[in-house]
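Pilot study result, target chain (356 residues):
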Amino acid sequence: MNWPLFFLMVVMLVYGLYAIHSATWMRDQAFAKSQLIWIAICMPMFFIVSLIDYRWVRFGAIPLYVVSILGLIATMFIGEKRYGARSWLDLGPMSFQPSQLAIIGGILTLSLFLSNTRAMPAFLRILGCGAIVGAPWLMILIQPDLGSCIVWVPVLLGMMFVGHIPKRWLILILVIGLALVPLVVHFGLKPYQYSRITTFLDPEADPLGDGWNITQSLVAIGSGGWAGKGYKSPNSLNALGFLPHTIVHNDFIFSVMGEQHGFLGSVILISGLALLFLIMLGISMNAEDDLGRLLAVGITLLLFTHTFMNLGMTISLTPITGLPLPLISYGGSFVMITLLSFAILQSIWIYRRSPR
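Predicted structure:
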């Protein structure tokens, strides 16, 4: 195993339990217990998948992709609506978000496709990538889950780059995509999604309405100062109820940690996450074949995008998208997807044969 990656993953999981408890101790302690149960359930899966040769993905990628598509279709008809998006399936004792399974299924299927079609003309390979990503992406957009849609963009472009798609095609796709952004913003977004964009551009325009969450997040992080207000501080904005209690344990978990541990604690947390991504990139560079390299890059970009968007929205660097912070934020289905991702990375490392 890649023990530095495993050690950091466990440290972050434990820190995540602490962060969730710190964010919810004054209201409801069930979230930390629920997260611990999910981790305990998913850890055996992590070890099992880690020890399976990642090349077996050729047998499981398409079935997983099909299951995720069926999950997205089911969500369209019987999904549970939360925070303006119908993106959850209620499975009795648990809820599941099929869009998170869909992107893992998409990464596996894209890796398999790109690693086996190098002789195919670039245009046909691009069409194939578009077909693989297009169906789940459109269904997620209809929900509408803008955050999950955004995650697909860097994952797809990064995997196509590593998958030997010529750079001129990637530049053309990027230019066309950027040209379509204004049309999507003005005609393709729901009113609450459009307000998130305008709030991101000017949080002070409506500080008591749409700009409340980001304004309080900035105040909370800033008030932490150098070393923070400390654990369970009665004077914290979270304890006083200024941070949104319904999502503070997932979307705004960094706001709580920034206020509680200050600049120093925030730098340590971000440094730990940065080290994780450097190790992931090292695994991709040491992968034996294109399949392993594509899988590692896709997973790294998936988790990095989640991290960048989550941290960014708490400090007004990115719009609020509702993406959780890997290993830290509360969320059972996302814990499962994250640990599955780390298991695949471990498998790529374990079964490397000719490190570069």
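One observation from the pilot: The first strand starts at residue 80 and ends at 82. A full batch analysis is planned for the follow-on phase.
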